[in-house]
Write a structure and sequence with these properties.
About 45% of the residues lie in helices and about 20% in strands. The protein has about 300 residues and is an alpha/beta fold. It has helices spanning about 10-20, 30-40, 80-90, 105-110, 155-165, 175-195, 205-225, 230-245, 250-255, 270-275, 285-295, and strands at about 1-5, 25-30, 40-45, 50, 55, 70, 95-100, 120-125, 125-130, 135-140, 140-145, 165-170. It has two domains: about 1-170, 3-Layer(aba) Sandwich (Rossmann fold); about 175-295, Orthogonal Bundle (N-(1-d-carboxylethyl)-l-norvaline Dehydrogenase, domain 2), CATH 1.10.1040.10. The mean pLDDT is about 95. The chain contains eleven helices and twelve strands. The structure holds NADP nicotinamide-adenine-dinucleotide phosphate. NADP nicotinamide-adenine-dinucleotide phosphate binds near residues 30, 102, 127 and 129.
Length: about 300
């Protein structure tokens, strides 16, 4: 398969490198990263060790032909701009898979591309961008792929991901799964970013009480928008993720520490947007969104 990874930073570089073993892969990244990869190969450390000689470019002007699929791995605040570039180059018939976190990527992509050409991927693989040319594969995880509209191509994607070594399944309800992952992130990420604490600190009663309130409010919003998500099941999942990632720094905290923008608008901010549409109380998510934005300013 011809695959273009748009926005190869941490996660895009990992997927692109491993997919390149059996596919014709090009990474589109920032200039320094692309130049280092062209010169020395892409170096993966940690759970995957090796040097991957994968094609890398820093502008779509350098891409010839048309890929079978584009995997979008920019942060969600860059999705609209990325899709605009994709459509300008390849037209609206191109297949696109968002392998991102956040709830608003699908609607941003849909502004330009028909729903039956869009795929969604969710992964708990964990990566950190170390420096241009080098990425740390910090933790292995599970990946699910799906399509908002029935589409057999998702099977091809699953096979390629599996061949590349990713533990991958097809989701029968990718939108529901996207919401579940976002609710977990909504419960964990802002608090860890605001207080600069490891995920495991959220087990303390005083913090876990807040986690429960965020979870309850977020589930209420998800249900109002038609999703079949139960609070008891969700809070158990949140508890399990806090336990299994107790030593980790959330991605939002990492962004704050690197003085980078966070994906708060696509997670808690988006839950607020949907909640308001259905007349739901979104006090918790709204406050967290504001507090994280304040942290972005004062880092
Ligand atoms: N890292 C993980 O372990 C992980 C796991 C699961 C899901 N995710 C999700 O995957 C998405 C990406 O996360 P990440 O950690 O891989 O982020 P990242 O390291 O910041 O990677 C995104 C890269 O895309 C680049 N980029 C943005 N616009 C571009 C453009 N027009 N042309 C070329 N490059 C462009 C960014 O450059 P600049 O920084 O210079 O803008 C950055 O290097 C997020 O939604 C995240 O939540 C990440």
């Amino acid at each position: 398969m011809r695959i273009l990874v748009f926005g190869a930073g941490a996660i895009g570089s990992l997927f692109g490198a491993k997919l390149s073993l059996y596919n014709d892969v090009t990474l589109l990244s920032r200039k320094e990263h692309a130049e280092s990869i062209k010169k020395n190969g892409l170096i993966l450390r940690g759970k995957t060790e090796g040097v991957y000689h994968v094609d890398a470019i820093h502008t779509l002007d350098h891409y010839t032909g048309k890929p079978d699929m584009i995997i979008i791995t920019v942060k969600s605040y860059d999705t609209r701009e990325a899709i605009q570039e994709v459509v300008n180059k390849f037209g609206r018939e191109i297949r696109v898979m968002s392998l991102q976190n956040g709830l608003d990527n699908l609607e941003k992509i849909e502004e330009f591309i028909r729903r039956d050409r869009i795929f969604l991927g969710l992964t708990t693989e964990g990566c950190i961008f170390l420096k241009p040319g080098e990425v740390l594969h910090a933790g292995t995880g599970k990946t699910i792929v799906g399509s908002p509209e029935k589409n057999e191509f998702v099977h091809d994607v699953m096979h390629e991901f599996r061949k590349a070594g990713f533990d991958t399944e097809i989701s029968q309800d990718i939108i529901g799964d996207m919401w579940k992952k976002a609710i977990i992130n909504a419960c964990i990420n802002p608090l860890t970013a605001i207080f600069e604490i490891k995920n495991g600190e959220l087990k303390r009663e005083i913090l876990f009480d807040i986690v429960k309130d965020i979870c309850m409010e977020s589930v209420d919003v998800a249900r109002a928008s038609g999703l079949d998500i139960e609070f008891e099941e969700m809070i158990e999942e949140v508890r399990n993720v806090i336990e299994s990632t107790s030593e980790n720094l959330s991605s939002m905290l990492q962004s704050i520490r690197r003085k980078k923008k966070t994906e708060i608008d696509s997670i808690n901010g988006y839950i607020c947007k949907v909640g308001k549409k259905y007349g739901k109380d979104v006090k918790m998510n709204s406050l967290l969104t504001d507090l994280v934005k304040i942290r972005e300013v004062f880092t």
